[in-house]
Amino acid sequence: QVQLVESGGGLVQPGGSLRLSCAASGSFFSIYAMGWYRQAPGNQRELVGRITSGGTTKYADSVKGRFTISRDNAKNTMYLQMNSLKPDDTAVYYCNAVLLNRVEDYWGQGTQVTVSS
Length: 117
What we know:
The chain contains no helices and eleven strands. The model has no long low-confidence stretch (mean pLDDT 94).
């Protein structure tokens, strides 16, 4: 099993920054890709960005140039650096991991990000 724990959410002013962390434990060596999703009230859960074990990244158009995904393999942790935050970025952010078989995936519990004055 893979266990994912998000942290780093909170309240930030528009234009500010936050860094989210997702720590993986268990079968971390079986992970093919990890990604961040978010869900705002009344909206569908959407992909924010993802990173593969090979380092390939992709981002939603809405966050390109503002958000950056990275990882620290020694710590089995993925990060989401969020800059120039907007109120529309307010959502619960979820960490996701896809296994090497590209069939099974796992989710963290989510962390709340609120962008407001």
